[in-house]
Amino acid sequence: MPDQDRTRPTDLPDAPVIVWFRADLRLRDNGALSAAAASGRPVIALFVLDETGASGRPPGGAQRWWLHHSLTALGSALGGIGLTLILRRGDPRAVLDDIINRTGAQSVVWNRRYGPEAIALDSEIKASLADRGLTVKSFAGALMHEPTKLKTGSGGYYKVYSPFWRAFIGEGEPRRPDPAPGTATAYDGTIESDDLADWDLLPTGPDWSGGIAATWTPGEKGAHERLKAFCADALADYGRKRDLPGVDGTSRLSPHLAFGEITPSDIWYAAAAAEGVAKKQLEKFHKELAWREFSYHLLVNFPDLRTANFNDTFDAFPWEGSEDALEAWHKGRTGYPIVDAGMRQLWQTGWMHNRVRMITASFLIKHLMIDWRRGEDWFWDTLVDGDPASNAASWQWVAGSGADAAPYFRIFNPILQGEKFDPDGAYVRRFVPELSDLPDKYIHKPWEAPRKVLEKAKVSLGSTYPEPMVEHKRARERALDAYNEMRGQA
Ligand code: FAD
């Protein structure tokens, strides 16, 4: 930064303010944007594609697709209040410095983010800009309560969800969402902006995004439409249907939340205001939103959540799965229909039902004995809702290595899980169409079907659909032996 920048006089009334958009691609309930608009200063709306890793793990393939469309939607929404979205690629520190130097901006505002790398980077930028006489303000939005604020009686952090939930509720009502600013003063100088198409966020050769595009409408408008539909159609029966992957029983707001196209506060209050919803159903839904907050609470207090076992006894776990086994899992060719349906839903649509996330994760970790971090990586690359806190916390939860985790020795039986939560096989038939003509009785265990039944359904095991790659009972015993071996070493 040249010297003259350090001596820049402060508080020029028409010096621009930069709104640095990150995981908050919305106008409504956007504290940073509202403050900038209300300041009366010229506003520069900026998004930086940080591929350096300084802001945290770069987005996976599915999220790159989403980001392209979400930025398109944000650009046009900002146009509606008179602003232009400036797109830049590179290290955010250098991009901000460049724009400040060229425009004389004197303040920068943003909404807080909570990944460990992002927190470190934002603190560094804040200190550096303040040193140079600029004003930096950050706002809440991504979470309903600040994740560091909730403390146990002894001043530590919560490792178990139930007391966390009680503390969360004890904090009082979440912040009320702000309306979108109606207008803002645009900065009228010229600022170089990249062409979004040049960022190559969309897949080519091959373009695998067809199923994702058919499933989702990225952007703030799409988020609010989905919220409205969920509150009208599914919330009233949420407690019963949320565990059934074959029906649309959940909100599917997770990718919109991951990109900050909508805030949890907005969702919280819209659900509370929905008509005809029993208190119990509403509480169940609110509690799920609080699981997301709990995941962030864990992440900010245990920043290595993605890479290190929360319970370090698991450092001695004798993982042994093969690359071939991992690939069969990726492709949804394990021979267990509910697992394969989940993995194919993930690949085709960029999302997987929560119940099936638990089943597929458990299968990888316990039936295939593959390190949970390999699964977490694959989910990160393929999920449109990949979230630094929820993904890592949930994988550790399933592995048994996490805070408040399911005990390792509770091993999901993929047949019984399928029969319980997809009793008519609707979900399996949709994503594993080669089994669609099997009767309900065999849809979750085709290998038990008599030859005639298989022939009638045009299923040839080992040819049209794989034989189970491991036998459940034996896999279970192997996993328990490994667990006991690990405990013996602890
Ligand atoms: P709804 O049932 O409608 O719930 C509403 C919101 O509450 C969700 O959008 C989500 O923000 C939050 N929520 C619900 N359940 C959970 C949960 N168990 N943990 C944390 N937040 C929750 N969620 C992600 O957002 N990103 C991830 O990367 C992610 N990875 C996961 C990996 C595994 C192995 C497992 C078991 C779960 C993972 N989850 C993740 C949690 C959960 O599966 C999804 O949040 C949920 O399926 C999203 O669908 P929905 O929006 O319809 O949820």
How is this structure best summarized?
It contains 22 helices and five strands.
List keywords for this structure.
22 helices, deoxyribodipyrimidine photo-lyase activity, Deoxyribodipyrimidine photo-lyase, 5-stranded parallel sheet, binds flavin-adenine dinucleotide, flavoprotein, chromophore, FAD, disordered N terminus, single chain, 490 residues, mainly alpha, globular
Structure description:
The protein is mainly α. The protein is 48% helix and 6% strand. The chain is built from 22 helices and five strands. 46% of the residues are buried. Bound molecules: flavin-adenine dinucleotide. Flavin-adenine dinucleotide (FAD) binds next to helix 10, helix 12, helix 15 and helix 17. Keywords: Chromophore, FAD, Flavoprotein, Lyase. It comes from Roseitalea porphyridii. Belongs to the DNA photolyase family. InterPro entries: Crypto/Photolyase_FAD-like_sf, Crypto/Photolyase_N_sf, Cryptochr/Photolyase_FAD-bd, Cryptochrome/DNA_photolyase_1, DNA_photolyase_1_CS_C, DNA_photolyase_N, Rossmann-like_a/b/a_fold. Its cofactor is FAD; (6R)-5,10-methylene-5,6,7,8-tetrahydrofolate.
